[in-house]
Amino acid sequence: MDAQARFTERIWHLAERAEREQQAFEPPADTPDEEQAMDYLREGAGPAISLFVEARTGQHMIHFPPEEYHALEGAMNTWLRLYAACYGVDLDAEFTLREAAELLVDTHNIKDVAEVLTHVSGG
């Protein structure tokens, strides 16, 4: 399997997981639910952004077709919406992968990325 195919497979896996998480989401009884919010970042938004960084740096320089790019970006935004919802914030997340990737490269911390993008911060 070539690099493009491996990235494509990972993108669709992340997109499907984001959709399942969104459908299963129940707003927390007590906000904030910082543990659940961090799970959405560590298990979802972080891997989505990291995949983009990995694809665009080093030896790969993978160019995603529009459908794959939008699926990955949509998955990242879904997890960022879920992150914000854990703090009781209804967020219309429309961030770009590039913006998130640049923040991740600068900060090396997915929580910092989420806080800068969403303006929702945890303790």
What does this structure look like?
It is a single chain. This protein has helices spanning 3-24, 34-56, 66-85, 97-107, 110-118. It starts with a helix and ends in a 5-residue tail after the last helix. The protein is globular, with a radius of gyration of 14 Å. The mean pLDDT is 94. It is 69% helix and 0% strand. Helix 2 (34-56) packs across helix 4 (97-107). It is built from five helices and no strands. It has 123 residues and is an all-alpha fold. It has one domain (3-118).
Q: How do the strands and helices of this protein lay out in sequence?
A:
Elements (H helix, E strand, L loop, with lengths): L2 H22 L9 H23 L9 H20 L11 H11 L2 H9 L5
Number of strands: 0
Overall number of structural domains: 1
User: What structural category do the secondary elements indicate?
Assistant: mainly alpha
The average pLDDT is: 94
Overall radius of gyration: 14 Å
Amino- and carboxy-terminal Cα gap: 43 Å
Instruction: Give the number of helices.
Output: 5
What coarse outline follows from CA principal-axis ratios?
globular
- Major pleated sheet: none
Question: What proportion of the residues form beta strands (DSSP E)?
Answer: under 5%
Give helix and strand order, one letter per element, not per position: HHHHH
Note poorly predicted spans.
none
Portion in helices: 55-70%
